[in-house]
Design goal:
81 residues, mainly alpha, elongated
């Protein structure tokens, strides 16, 4: 079983630990702590990347510069070019 908790560090308390212990009982668990990064902020951090992403979103919205494939094989062939 996998469970992901997303919370602020100041919300980690004995109640959370007891909840995890209750949920997993006598099973072995791995606890990994990672600093959460907002993916949108990360992708928009570079002005060049921001412009490129916004242009691509506009293209999708306006149905411009889209590629169409009739099969996975066709897509794979285009990627090998």
């Amino acid at each position: 079983m996998d469970t992901i908790y997303r919370l602020n560090a100041n919300e980690i308390d004995e109640k959370l630990i007891e909840s995890i212990k209750s949920l997993f009982r006598d099973r072995k668990v791995i606890i990994s702590v990672t600093d959460a990064v907002d993916e949108t902020d990360y992708l928009f951090a570079s002005e060049v990347n921001r412009k490129r992403l916004l242009d691509a979103l506009g293209d999708v919205r306006d149905s411009k510069n889209l590629l169409e494939f009739n099969s996975i094989e066709e897509l794979e062939k285009s990627l090998l070019k």
